[in-house]
Amino acid sequence: MTEHSTTRCGYVAIVGRPNVGKSTLMNHLIGFKVSAIANKPQTTRHNIRGILTEQDYQLVFVDTPGIHRTSKSLLNKTINMEAVAALEGVDAVVMIVEAMKWVDEDSLVLQRLAHVKCPVFLVANKVDRVEKKEKLLNWLPDVLAKYPFREIFPLSATKGTNTEQLKAALVKVMPQQDWIYAEDDVTDQSTRFICGELIREQLMVYLHQEMPYSTAVEIETFEEKPRLTEINAVIWVSRDNQKGIVIGNKGETLKRIGSSARIALEAFLERKVMLKLWVRVEENWENSPRHLQSLGISN
Ligand SMILES: Nc1nc2c(ncn2[C@@H]2O[C@H](COP(=O)(O)OP(=O)(O)OP(=O)(O)O)[C@@H](O)[C@H]2O)c(=O)[nH]1
Ligand SMILES: [Mg+2]
Known about the structure:
This protein is an alpha/beta fold. The protein has 2 domains: 8-172, P-loop containing nucleotide triphosphate hydrolases (Rossmann fold); 191-294, K homology (KH) domain (GMP Synthetase, Chain A, domain 3), CATH 3.30.300. It is 33% helix and 23% strand. A 6-stranded mixed β-sheet has the order 2-3-1-4-5-6. Strands 7-8-9 form a 3-stranded mixed β-sheet. Strand 2 (48-53) and strand 3 (57-63) form a beta hairpin. Helix 6 packs antiparallel against helix 8. The protein is globular, with a radius of gyration of 20 Å. Bound molecules: guanosine-5'-triphosphate and magnesium ion. The site of magnesium ion (MG) has 5 residues, from helix 1.
C-alpha cells in the first residue's frame, strides 16, 4: 500500500448459483461485455476479472462460475473449485440470488461463505420480474436472517436499476491503495479468450438440452490482417454423434452459430471478422485433465 494514497481500490468477488445474473451484473458495472451471458446454467467456466476505473477508485470484479450441486464430471468439479477459490484474498463479496426465489443451491453458496472475513453484500437480482413490489419487502427479512450480510440491494442487472448504489457501497469498503490495473484495462483476459467465449455464447443459444455442456471452444489461430481479423476456432464435442448435432442438417446449425458469432466478434473487435469454425471430437473431454488444461479450465 502506498502511504499517502487517497484512491480506493480492491477486489470484489461476484458469486452465486448458476444463472442468477453474475456475468450480466459484472458486464453492466464495468460497462463492457467481457463475460458470456446465456439463459442456461453454467455459462461461465472461468473466473474472469472485469475492471472499473473512475477518478478516485478502481473496482476489480471477479465474475465466477455458478456454484452448483451436481459435480458429475471433472469439468463440473473444477468450475465449482474455481468459484470457491475466487473468495480468497478479496476485499468484498457480492452474493447474487434471484429476487423472491431462494433455493437449495443458494444455501450451498452460503456454506461456501462461512469462512469469509470481508463484507458480504447480497444482491436480489431480476427485480424487474417481480410484479408486486410489496411482496419483495416481506421476502427480504427472511433472506437477511440467513447470514450477516453487510447490506442488501434489490436490483435489475439488465435494466441497471439500483446498481449505482451497489457500486457506492462497494467503494466505501475498499482499501486505500494505488491502482491494481492500468486505468484503461477492462479485463485480465486476452482478446483471444473473450473471442472464444463469444463463440461459446452462441453455442449456448443454438444447442439444446445437455449439448452446450459437452462443448468447448478453442481459438486455433487469430490473425490481424490489414482489412479484417481472421479467426479459426475449434468446437470440441465429447462424442462422435454430437458432431452431427452441432453441424446440423446440411450444415445449417453451424452456419447459424458462425454468423451470429461473427456479428458478436465484429462488435467486440470493432472491425471485420472472417470466422471459420471446425467441429472436432475429443472423447469425454469433460473428464480429461489434459484437455481441460489445454482449454485453460483446469486450475
Ligand atoms: N429479467 C432479468 N433477467 C436477467 C437479469 N440479469 C440477468 N438476467 C438473465 O439471466 C440469464 C443468466 O444471466 P447470466 O449473467 O449468464 O447468469 P450467471 O449467473 O452469470 O450464470 P452462470 O455463468 O451460468 O453461473 C440471462 O438470460 C440474463 O439475460 C435481470 O436483472 N432481469
Ligand atoms: Mg456467468
